[in-house]
Amino acid sequence: MSGKTGRALLIGLVAGAVLFSAAPAGADRFENPKAQLPPRAKPQRRSAGESLPPLPLPATPLRRSERKRQPAPPALVGMITFSGSRFVIHNGRRVAEEVFPTTQIDIERLTSFANHRLGIRYRFVATSLKNFSWDPVELPLLYITGWTPMPRLSDQMLQKLRRYIYDGGTLVVHAQCGRKEFVDSARREIARLFPDRPLAPIDTDSPLFRSYFHITHMRVRKDDRPFRSMPPYLEAVYIGCRPAVIFSPIDLNCGWDVVRHPIKGGILYHQDDALALGVNVVTCALANLKYARAFATEKIYHQQEDKTRDQLVIGQIRHNGDWDPTPHGLPNLMKYLASHTTLNVQFKRVTVDLADDKAFEHPVLYMTGLRDFKFTPAEVAHLRAYLASGGVLVADAAAGRRAFDAAFRREIKRVLPEAELKPIPLNSPLFEAPFKIRTVDYTEAVKAMQPDLNAPSLLGINIDDALAVIYSPFSLGNGWEQIPYTYNLGYSDEDALRLGVNTLVYAVTH
Question: What is the CATH number of domain 298-509?
């Protein structure tokens, strides 16, 4: 589904609200039948035992139940509730209703199912944004679901929620019955939460669709119509390479039998498929905990404000995809470069707009990403001129994502239509200095897929007998970051740094 056709189909189905617009504005009040089911009773934690009643002897021993205090399992998910009520007119009567009604039917079932399948012991707890500690160590996931418009969060609340996510927390949001009222308001609040980070469809090579269950298609039901099969669909805001905000505009229905009880005005995943996807979400969140917490601090470039004088500064290209998924990578690489070569390096972060002539100030440009992107005609023309004038483009697919790989190959063909990306041979000067590289070590994720792979996999395009484009479909930047990321399809940290140094030395000396 990384291709243009698959993406257009999903966006047309979901974002276009052709299939998934369950109720038009102004429709009759929607009653969510999932909310009518009471939550399961909490376990009593009792054990039967023999004991004597406080009666004078002789007495016959009686059985009575005694409380057995077992420790509660640790909390994994905090289900956000918004307190408060309002009066509305319903059927000619003035009645009180919740400001934001919600239901725990799905998270309750998912938690139980995930515990069983993954062999873990966690629970969910109800909490509110006012009472929450904002510590992702205490609650790694926050969960919001509803079918009415989501309340508008205060700026102070958004700031706290943003900090929680940067500190390693994950926010999961899903629309009960796929209701448009909730979908639109959730998109609004997520955009306010991260105005500079796009909420966009997740490509189907994401770990969210293969971390435990390998999911290629899911069954969806609108109203009481027959089920339709489609590729799994979620949207996300990424911080680094992890989906920090996960949004499902389709009901991630884990607790309702939509086969026997379709919901008029609703659009829901089949329960079995939703449970599988939910387990994948839990698996990814648990696997990413250590990685996620590394983004609580930001790398500081101590020469950021200094003027550049005969020093090497790498310009990083901003594009309309996830252009900065490995923000710790370049500063680590530049530090490694300075300690292993005589190059005069300036520790300075510069982002480059390809439509701007300032790109020509840098001998080397770097770009990376996770998802699809597309150059504008002006960016295509400027990059072509930059490469023709002697500049070098270094690029890699963050975490080895196929979506970016496909997009980069497509876009570089627009820039250099007569050229072709070809494997860089091992006898290239790039692999000679300062490190002589013949074999490399890959991450465990790569070894699981290609156990015999041990040669560097760099591709290039030559202009005037020198490499003008150097591209790695396996991640370099994740290795430069030196932050363990379970789902990284890339080089080991050490070999990523060695390849990065050789690549930059080649770029500035040839």
Answer: 3.40.50.12140
The CA distance from 65 to 15, in Å, is 55
CA gap 166, 136 in Å, rounded: 10
Among 468, 412, 403, 415, CA closest to 3? 403
Say if CB 355 and CB 379 are below 8 A apart: yes
Q: What is the pLDDT of residues 418-451, one digit of tens each?
A: 999 999 999 999 999 999 999 999 999 999 999 9
How do beta strands 263-269 and 218-223 pair? antiparallel
User: CA–CA separation, 386 vs 153, rounded Å?
Assistant: 45
Cα–Cα distances in angstroms (integers) from residue 158 to residues 134, 154, 323, in the given order: 12, 6, 24
Three-state secondary structure call for residue 287: helix
Separation in Å, CA 276 to CA 117, 144, 213, 219, 270: 10, 19, 6, 12, 10
Are the beta carbons of 180 and 23 closer than 8 angstroms? yes
pLDDT digits (tens, 9 = 90+) for 126-183: 999 888 899 999 999 999 999 999 999 999 999 999 999 999 999 999 999 999 999 9
Rounded to 5 degrees, φ, ψ at 284 are -65, -45
Residue whose C-alpha is closest to residue 312's, from 333, 294, 291: 333
Q: Tell me: the pLDDT tens digits for 85-113?
A: 555 565 666 555 667 899 999 999 999 99
| Token pair in block for residue 460 | 């290039």
Tokens of 167: 């500190």
User: Crossing angle for the helix pair 180-193 and 155-166, nearest 10 degrees?
Assistant: 70
Ranges of CATH 3.40.50.12140 domains, the chain: 4-24+31-36+70-294, 298-509
Task: Please tell me the CATH code under which domain 4-24+31-36+70-294 is placed.
Answer: 3.40.50.12140
* Three-state secondary structure readout of 430-489: HHCCCCCCCCCCECHHHHHHCCCCCCCCCEEEEECCEEEEEEECCECHHHHHCCCCCCCC
